[in-house]
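Deliverable D5.2: sample structural annotation.
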Amino acid sequence: MILVLKGMLDIAIKKKILDSFYAIILVCAGFLIILGCCSDDDSSSGGGWGGSWPGVDDAIDDRRVTCTSLGGVWQDTTCNPFDPTNPQDSITSQVEDNEGQNGSIACCKSVETVELVIDTITDQDVSEDATPWNIDLLTYTNGQTNELRWNIMYSDPALVIASISGNLLNFELVPNAFGSTQLTVVGMNKYAYSTTQTIKLNIAPVLDAPRIISTPIVDAFISQGYQYQLKIFDPDSTAFEYNVSKGPNRMSVTNSGIVTWAPLDKDNGNLTQITIQVIDESDLKGSQTYNLRVWP
């Protein structure tokens, strides 16, 4: 390169270009050529004048690649500054740019804190007389507890009354209802990732004893006689037998459940305890006891 520069000066002299202005131009051009050819900067392109220093975009690209390799999810390039007290940024400190510096932009989110997965919830097998119970949904989210919200997408109101309280899914069976149904819940975390879980509910029937639910007539009149129509509740039966377990002579119950009695003059003023029994098709029994007073 020195020879090149010397040659250029010789040419200038031979051509009598001795004017200082042109001489300076030729000398400077020679030095520029020498610098362009001999530079060891790896950022130069093709040995000529060019190249550039790694920029912000390069650093962001490197962080993005590193984020993925760590099993994270890259969010965007304009996140909030890294906050070491925030669990969702826990792996940001591992994301380094191309100069080995810790990333100062919290754009790499751990998959475990972004996505929400609900493990399979076991079938709920109960009887129709089961008392209310609940399921803690957090036990099915692989340890994720941060600001989860829950809703019930579907439930069968004819069989179960379901509700959400915090992270608890509450069940209350409809009285005397049985059968199989499904209940679907949806969970969402603070990153708006959501997922659903469908729970099977199997309610086994239980035979119920008949119950006399009518209000007894507690006054009998000698002049009028006594009648009392029984009303029975039994979800398992429609046909019943009746009898007077305890009561005065001549009191009886018809096949349609009407208690009848004709008090005599000697019964006037008496207070008598009455017990009526009912038996259903499964031979289950129910009864009602009350006091009956006789008037003239």
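Annotation notes: The chain has four domains: 2-38, 68-114, 124-204, 211-295. DSSP finds four helices and 18 strands in the chain.
The annotation will be released with the project's public dataset once the embargo ends.
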